[in-house]
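Posted in: Protein Modeling Q&A

I'm a second-year student putting together a small comparison for a lab meeting, and my supervisor asked me to include a predicted structure for Pyridine nucleotide-disulfide oxidoreductase, dimerization domain protein. I've never done this before, so apologies if this is the wrong subforum. The sequence is pasted below exactly as I got it from our records. If anyone can share the structure token output, I'd also love a short note on what stands out.
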Amino acid sequence: WVTYCDPELAQAGLTEAQARERFGAAVRVVRASLEDNDRARAQGQTAGGIKVVTDRRGAILGAAILGPQAGELIPVWGLAISQGLRLSALTNLIVPYPTLGEISKAAASAFYGPKLFSPWPRRLVRLLRALP
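Accepted answer (user: helix_wrangler)
Welcome! Here is the predicted structure, written out as tokens:
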């Protein structure tokens, strides 16, 4: 659904509260702010962002977007939910620069950031660098 106000508000799938009620502690939430989006900055419309609700493996359960053109940005999340996609599918999304659509990719990438920079991958990188 979309509420056409200023800024727009759009939702697809489960809300965080609905997901927690249904899946409990397995729920993960990732966010991306429009303050970090170059198109939003250029337009002077940085209020808002995206919140994506997933399970612990990255299956997309719901998404909410608050900001300019939220109604235009939410369909990709509706499709991802209906097709049972994981956030990894959206990290591969090719998005023109600079567009508001980059916020979807930023949110998907935010899910994997803590995993990529945890101690185990860091040790692996150090080991690989030490190889001749």
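A couple of things worth pointing out for your meeting: Strands lie at 2-3, 8-13, 28-33, 49-54, 60-67. The chain has one domain: 2-130.
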